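Box S1 | Example of a co-folding query
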Amino acid sequence: MEYLSRNLTYSTGANEFKYYPMCKQMKLTHLMFANDLLLFCKGDGPSIMTILRSFATLSKTSCLNMSKGKSNAYFNGVNESLKQDILRISGMVEGALPFKYLGVPIKTTRLNAKDCKPLIDKIVQRIRNLEARKLSYAVYIKGDNWLKYSPTNNSSWSWRKICCVKTLYQESYQHHIWATYQGREYSITKGYDSIRNKGERVQWHQLVWNKCTIPKHRFLTWIHMHNALNTKEKLHKLGISDDDTCEICRNGTETASHLFFACEYSSRVLTLVGGFIGESISADAPTEWRRGMKGSGMRKDIINAIINACIYSIWKQQNLCKPELILLKSAKLVNQIIKEVTGRTLSFPENLGVRDREWLEGLRIRS
Ligand SMILES: [Zn+2]
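Box S1 (continued) | Returned holo structure for zinc ion
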């Protein structure tokens, strides 16, 4: 369904598709709930065909087919001959409006509060049931020794996990006082370090884990640093992709190094970004980027955040241009990157010195 959802987003972006009038503002084409799918569009040939083509692509790719006996088409203000054509092509049966779904009447006019009340009542009831279920899972261990307590077999997964951590911590807690931990005074950090696997510190940690970087950008760079991005080179080797050619320039193998640095498009983006921040960004040794940078620690964090945003945005462009080539102009992409990072950094001014703030404001104005 996620695939269908993406496919509909791409295909309904074309000019010939027209939204159902009341869905236009929200760009709503479909709603999904459990195994049910509701599709909406204007009642004209091109729009209906766009929807049906997306559905046919899903069927071809996943072997999931529409159950025609359980599917209905609903019309409002569509002329009879077009209606018959749609029913014939889609194989669906015409349904009558209004009908009820999840207790709410589906009709062509706007829903009012009374229409939605049955659904809201159901949701409220469900939340109340959940609360009651959670509260009923209380474990009363008064008078018993918590340190010697073991959860029963029918205890919940989360409760057993909590008890498991208690056992790990037990070494540090003796005779009702926190014993010194490894010869030093106990602290939460030391306690936490004692129960987790601690790997070796990597050289690039400041590039990814700094406070200015936007979390979703951070996550993608982290995957990239572990050489775990599914580039076309990898997908081709696994037999998933037909070829390994870069989707953006169609002129080279799509490795991470090509995609983020060597590709014609990425080079333009990085050159423009370099002009903004006064640093040149090259593919060589990302661990060295920070070391060679000028300015305060905060300035370096901001530049790192911009580099992470570049990696994320180029990856996004590569994914967007797959079904049809819709590539944002490099200058526009760079402006978006600078605006996004400066906007985030200026939102926590307490960490910014006067010079960094002026520099950041300058970047924002220029973008
Ligand atoms: Zn390329």
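Residues 297-320 form the longest helix (24 residues). Strands lie at 30-33, 36-39, 72-73, 93-94, 99-101, 104-106, 173-174, 177-178.
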